[in-house]
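URGENT: need a sanity check before tomorrow's submission.

F., can you look over the Vacuolar protein sorting-associated protein 22 homolog 1 record below? I want to be sure the sequence and structure line up before it goes out.
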Amino acid sequence: MLVLQDQYWLLGEYVAKIRTDLMKEQLTTFRTQLEDFAQKHKNDIRKNPAFRSQFHNMCTKVGVDPLASNKGFWAELLGIGDFYFELGVQIVDICLARRPHNGGLINLKELCNMLRQR
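Structure tokens as predicted:
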């Protein structure tokens, strides 16, 4: 009986390894296709906020965070890190300029309107 249990255990290990290898292969394929998509639509991702948001939502659903690091693959490929860094600088500039009027605190709608004017 012990021999049969060992055989089942070995078979289970073998099936688990096959599934793990297959999953790794699928993830590699998916990442390659996601990179190709990002490269192909790079300009739309950078320039179109709605498209960028949809791309980010799609990435988030599959566990990829293109905004995770300024020095990461996605920031390098898409320049996303630069975009958000520049946006952050503009937000700080607006808040500092408005500080004499409101202490540097600003309504989000007002901030968005001021960013659009820039």
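My own read: Residues 35 and 64 are 11 Å apart (CA to CA). The chain has a mean pLDDT of 80. If you see anything odd, call me.
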